[in-house]
């Protein structure tokens, strides 16, 4: 069947991570036609879960916290739906002593964080939202009081309003490729946002791996800043898969080394947790070029001045974590609905 090479919609959302998925939900309730586009093979962005052998491991976000009522309402719904559960109330900090519990629930998702994104996407699709995965947008330009997005495989999208949820350095590159100029204040505000990188090792372990309760350890400032046992987390019943996230310095200093070299260094740092006889059956490396924002924009989203409706949202806006990204997506979409002419 011949696929159409052009799609038109009210709202085009680039990025189907948590910010884009939440935003699409708002647009839907406003009865707008919405298209979501993501370059990944599947939805989720940094809500990422990978299978290795018979096991499963979260290799992006590990858990989420709740600070605001607006997000709490969503999390309670996800709990009622059997998606989210409380994993822990705190982590150990570098010792094998019992975990430091501070009373704040840390939530995880059954079968891995990406399941939450898949669930949100399935609900959106059922309600008529078109989601195009595996489509990389390469340039963005204003056109006819709206926007046109060009993709790497020649497909174009046009929309009355555009919401960009990739990390701002990536969004700015798409606008620059379309020779689109932002107002100087907007350009400066977005150009100030920088991200840390993260090298994340996944290790399929045979034998005992000694982590304190609840099967995770936070080690700020060390070579490996986070270690989690996905089996004890409850998402990998059939195999012990360890997620090890390197700290920002190690990730920066070793970014250009071969996967095998990085994994060997990370495995050496994990040795202290191995019992005699424990062995690594398989390991894989995931590189996050845009892991966590080092600087954030002080508002929940940025609405571009002097151009057709264009908003920027995601975890760089008022909250460098899942909750911040979700609330940013919701707020940006509500604003976009208010400034677009009636559907
Ligand atoms: C290793 C790691 C650990 C983390 N741990 C935690 C944690 O424990 N708790 C927590 O709350 N947060 C954590 N975070 C942060 C959290 O994952 C993010 O804040 C949140 O998921 C960001 O969501 P987002 O929608 O803003 O961005 P993203 O999830 O990055 O979504 C942006 C999407 O845009 C797409 N995209 C980019 N460019 C294009 C293009 N040209 N065309 C089409 N699509 C494009 C990408 O494919 C991506 O899917 C962690 C992040 C990392 C990397």
**Distinct compounds present:** flavin-adenine dinucleotide
Please name the CATH topology of the largest domain.
FAD/NAD(P)-binding domain
Strand fraction: 25-35%
Low-pLDDT segments, ≥5 res = none
- The CATH class assignment of the largest domain is Alpha Beta
Number of strands: 17
> In the residues, how many domains can be counted?
2
Rg, alpha carbons: 21 Å
Helix-strand category: alpha+beta
- The CATH homologous superfamily of the largest domain is termed FAD/NAD(P)-binding domain
Order of helices and strands: EHEEEHEEHEEEEHHEEEHEHHEEEH
**CATH architecture level-2 label of the largest domain:** 3-Layer(bba) Sandwich
The number of helical runs is 9
Multimer state: single chain
Helix content: 25-40%
Q: Tell me the overall shape.
A: globular
Q: Average pLDDT across residues?
A: 95
| C-alpha end-to-end distance | 31 Å
